[in-house]
Sequence to fold (342 residues):
Amino acid sequence: MTPATSSSPRSVRGHRLRGHLIGGYGLLVLAVLLFLVFSLALPHTFPTRDTVSSILSNQSIPAIMALGATVPIATGKFDLSIGYGLGLAHVMVMELLVNEGWPWPLACLVVVAGAAVVGALNGVIVEFGQIDSFIATLGTGSMMYAVTGWVTDGARIVPGPDGLPASFTGLFDSRFLGLPLPAFYVLAVAAALWVVLERLPLGRYLYVIGSNPRAAGIIGIPTRRYSVYAFAGSGLIVGFAGVLLAAQQQTGNPSVGLDYLLPAFVGALLGSTTIRPGRANALGTLVAVAVLAIGLAGIGQLGARFWATPLFNGATLLIAVGLAGYSARRRLRTGATATDHP
Fold:
């Protein structure tokens, strides 16, 4: 009886450690395994520098959008307007450059600042209007789409024969250290978000609000104000993504933003199941985006049809939500076990 009793806490600790490692780093291992599997299946095309470069370039905007979606999710809110916001931001950049003749640095700065203001307005509507974030941001997103249609009159904004400034298009087309420049933007945004969420009081406040808003209010955290900050931060990141989208496409397409909505939430929700399981985090979002990018690149090279991409994203979203719920339940069980076996 004595050995069994003495080994029980050790067994519990071992179980908790294994669960922590699997939950924390399982998705990272999956990304490596996916790359190895596709490399073995497509040895001449997949494990190449061109494929890696294409993944880093093509997935940079979805990655930045996923990081933008991560911020409100940390507070337990969802911003469904980010796809519409991306479309409006990139259209406004093209409008100011092509039709208004603004210098591109000023146009980009104004659009990013305006996106942050729109994000803050989303937060105000959600928090002070006491409207569910799904409903509120779906409504404001529809309004953004209306503004996008009004600005473009439903048509594309196409540059003149001289095109756009090379310094502007170089924001997306350039390379640094042999890799696409947008990949470094993703790393910079992720690093900044990691510092905010993991190292600054602001991030701790956001997490407390997301886990228990009533307790956050009791201990003196101004929950409404910080929730507005979260939406403003999301809008700022989405505005930056809109600038990159304009530099990439070099036209103003009024309907392009919604294509990025689902991948953004898949990355953010799937990311909440890894590195820091149970809560949205920047590094987890990066790992999730890597899994999605490798998977999409692999099935694309295998000759998948056009409908494979939305099917993959939708299925992964369901898996992400399921894993997030399982992770939260496992944390509760682990906490209860730790209480029973101090």
